C-alpha cells in the first residue's frame, strides 16, 4: 500500500511524520487536514506518528488515534514508539518544562526502520500547509547521498546577523531526510 512519489530518480516511498499531542490535538488535526488537502492521495501514503506511553502528551486515546487515522485516510498510519533507551538520554537533557520532552522525541525518527519508507518529512503540530509540499522530495532524493554535517535552521540568517555565528542544528519545526539516517541520529544522541 506504500505510495510512491515520482522524482528524477524514479519512484520512491515517503512518509510524513508528526509527534502525537493531546494538548495540541486540534492543531495536529488541522495540520494533517491541510497536508492532505494540498497534497492529495497521489503523494506519500504513510503518516508516521511518534509517541511513547510514558509521555502523557503523546499517549493518545483510542478515540484520538481513530480520529487521526480517519483524517489521513487512505494514508497508512504507522505508530512509532520511541525507543526507551534513547528516551532515557533525552530525559536527561535540561528542559524549560517537562512538556518540552515531546519536542525531543521527534529525533527518534532518525532511527526509523520501516522497509516501506525511504524518506521522511517531519512537521510540528503548529504548522499549516497552504500549498503542496511535494517540492521537498527533490532535494531529499537528489544525489549524492552523502549528507551534510548538519541541516541549517531556517532562521540561521537572522541569528547570524545578530551574533555573527550561524549555529549548526536541526530545524525543530520541519525537516526532511532520507532513510536510513541512524548514523546522523547517533551523532545527535552523542551531542545531547
Order of helices and strands: EEEHEHEHHEHHEH
The strand count comes to 7
Main beta sheet:
5 strands, mixed
Distance between the termini: 36 Å
What's the average pLDDT? 79
Total helical elements: 7
Structural category is: alpha/beta
Word description of this protein:
This protein has 192 residues and is α/β, with parallel strands linked by helices. Helices cover 31% and strands 18% of the residues. The strands form 2 sheets. A 5-stranded mixed sheet has the order 5-4-3-6-7. The protein has a two-stranded antiparallel sheet with strand order 1-2. β1 and β2 form a beta hairpin. The chain is globular and about 40 Å long. It starts with a strand and ends with a helix. About 9% of the residues have low confidence.
How do the helices and strands line up, and which of them pair or pack?
Elements: E1 4-7, E2 10-13, E3 15-19, H1 25-39, E4 46-51, H2 62-72, E5 76-81, H3 84-91, H4 101-104, E6 119-123, H5 137-141, H6 156-163, E7 174-178, H7 182-190
Helix pairs in contact: 1-2
Brief overview:
The chain is 31% helix and 18% strand. With 192 residues, the chain is an alpha/beta fold.
Tag the structure with descriptive keywords.
single chain, 192 residues, alpha/beta, 5-stranded mixed beta sheet, two-stranded antiparallel ribbon, 7 helices, 31% helix, 18% strand, globular
